[in-house]
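Question: Hello, beginner here. Any chance you could explain the protein record under this note? Any guidance would be welcome.
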Amino acid sequence: LVFYYPNYSEANLSNVEQSDRIKKSLVDALTWFHMLAGRVKDNLCIDCNDEGVHYVEAKVKCSLSEFLVSPTPCELNKFLPFELDEVNELPTAIQVTFFNCGGLAIGILMSHRIIDALSFILFLKSWSAIARGDGNIVSPPMDSAKLFPPQDLSGFNPNIGIEKDKIVTKRFVFDASAIAEIRGKYSSDDKSIEYSRPTRVEALSAFIWSRFMAATQPKPDPNKIYSIIHAVNLRTKTDPPLPYDYFGNICRIALSVPSRDIEEGFHGIIKPIREALKKIDGNFVKILQQGDLYLKYLKENSSSFLKGELLTLSFTSLCKFPLYEVDFGWGKPAWVSSSKLTFKNLVSFIDTKSGDGIEAWFNLKEEDMAKLETDKELLAYVSPLNLV
């Protein structure tokens, strides 16, 4: 993620003062999140050797307001200290970039080997609170290995779906009225259904999946399975539930196979999504904790993926996360962005700054993006991209 901060005159801080505050508060934050200062070893464990976080500073020869007029998603990785596939053993890495106007961008990389989105935001909230002088920080639980004992991962490729080349990133913005219309499109008239109107994320997932299929797979291949994947937080699924500040990569995926008949609406797409999510329950977590059965399932699915039998579109949502509350003492960010990711067929949802719209960040193969961005039905719901 990248956080963009204008030069708020009321803060009255120079870039040097901001830099000093960022570095000092980062050092203090790492005493609470010590594993982030260690190194990942053999893709299996973290050596908490206190080597520290990789930190760099950079300058850009324009003002932040100029940049925000028309940011290009594929260029945003310049605000990050590494390409995403070059981080290797680092749990986290940070780049602070200063604009000519005195504004700045803070780009943060964190390894998905060890943290999920909730833990990412927990660290950012704690770090920024320390920078503001709020010392009310509590060290989060970091013993997830007791809940999910390490397993022998031989024979499983953790990089399934990750491609460095020919992935294009685009940002499509849906405002509140467009989202409301899409939710209505996928609602059910059946009064016996609990929550017959889909959530914002359900509705956008269904709509985007249907347009992706129409644009890239107009003639279904009977030998392929067309599926949707959603990332799921497991903290609420354990018995008893884990606290939200439980630190780690405590999430899994729910895979659904919707109908290709777009006329089916709620029953064809929303219902299968909900049924898949419902299966991620306490029993699923117990199987996950046993390890062997779940790894067998993963290997079978990755084999199908490699053979091309399984075509997925994955969704992950940061909606309702307090991204725009990350304040280091000089005000809230003007914008929070994703970057160009290396995971094929991934859509990330981030709230707009107003909170009522959603930015959908698409990471697709070049040829698929070219087809999708000319889809008239998709574009009919997309808002202008300007931020300022």
Observations:
- Residues 200-216 form the longest helix (17 residues).
